[in-house]
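Structure tokens please, single chain.
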Amino acid sequence: MANVAGIPVYKEMGATPGPGSALDRVRVAIVGAGPVGLALALDLGRRGHPVTVLNRLDFVAHCSKAICFSKRSLDILDRLGIGDAVVEKGVTWNVGKVFRGAGEDPVYRFDMLPVKDQKRPGFVNVQQYYIEEYLLDGCRALPNVDIRWGHAVDAVTPQGDGVELAVTAEGGGYRLQAEWVVACDGARSTVRDRLGLDFEGRVFEDNFLIADIRMKHEMPAERWFWFDPPFNPGRSALMHKQPDDVWRLDFQLGWNIDREVATRPENVETFIRAMLGEGIEFEREWYSVYTFQCRRMARFVHGRVVFAGDAAHLVSPFGARGCNGGFADADNLGWKLDLVLNGNADESLIETYNHEAVATADENILNSTRSTDFLTPKSSASQALRDAVLELAKDHAFARPFVNSGRLSTAVAYADSPLSTPDEDAWDGGVAPGMPVLDAPFGNGWLLDELGDGFVLLACGETHDPLPDMRLVALEPGSLAAQRLGLTAGAAVLVRPDQYVAARWRRPTPAAISAALRRAKGEIQCQH
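Here you go.
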């Protein structure tokens, strides 16, 4: 496997020549061709917009990054046309088990897809570079998506009606003027740095070792987590299966360590042998050490510069909330930027991205912080509480939900979104405004596939005159889809392009539907 500057290469792309002029003008520039930047580029490209993607490296990296992709992310990737490729390549799992000490029976077992009869599973494990490859395939099929490899941003200058970037590329530098710039350039974001912005939050005093290994040994496709195992006493460990006979092993190391020493093969393999046993053959894929962080920018929107993914927020890996949270950002921003670029919404709609994406980041940071505090107690009281929970969980069901080995990523509700119309009627169940539609069988397929990526009115048992910017989809009264939405005959739900509920009614009127659609597009301010 080739390496460039110490980074293993999955696929060489080759440096893209510069534009051939000192000044280039584009509508949307996305900085960073990781999964979040590519997902946004594919979304905007599929909606017909010209998009330019700048990536500092001229290759796709092959190393330990995201591997766990949640059902919500799979739903998003379905909408982008690559969900089938991801699921076919990936390792599907719904079950997680938590062990303590040397015990062979789990103290806690959970199911990531408690609601069955949905198209996608709770989670799929697949290496990030495969996700990037499938997104790249989608982008390359669109003539309006221009990906420039080996183009590094050096300076960022906000202007009244856009942003100017100074870019270094093969053959020399150039200036790129864009109406909008979306920074998807990761935890060490150059765009964030050049604007003098930073993160707020916590860095946790602990280190974890990632060991990605290749082995043929058969084990269940489940998430296994250990507290205080005999092969890492007093600490924790994790095991996950990936495609291609690759396994992700995690070992808690403690705070004051020498990272270089910790990642030496002979030291890593001591942990691996202790976990797997002496008779298991394996090969090294990638070893690295990481530190927990739960931090974010104060704001994600700065004029015409918008931040998404790790450039905007960071969470600890336990819970798989990093890349999944980034896909939520791209999903939230894409349709809003589409409306603004088409002149169908005011620029202020992008401010609602800040509102909702910050809410998502805060939810992920809250859960990630709680998981980290449980995994790495920093006081005797916290240690005693954790030990008591684990001890009780063996025999008492009430204690098991308190076992926190990483609250795994699920869709975040926008409880107070300015784009939602509050309920006027009393509802018993269903999907409230600000929550994503729950999938269900629909005809010969699935409800989420039917929604597409525009505004949709789901009407149960009655027809309504469709509005110019909205499709009408009829649901059968009593169907599983109607039941999950809480819809009886005559009721309806307005769904946003990101498949979140914007409004719902027991007895909708044309005026109410029109007002809710205008509010969901940012034309009416919602009063709470």
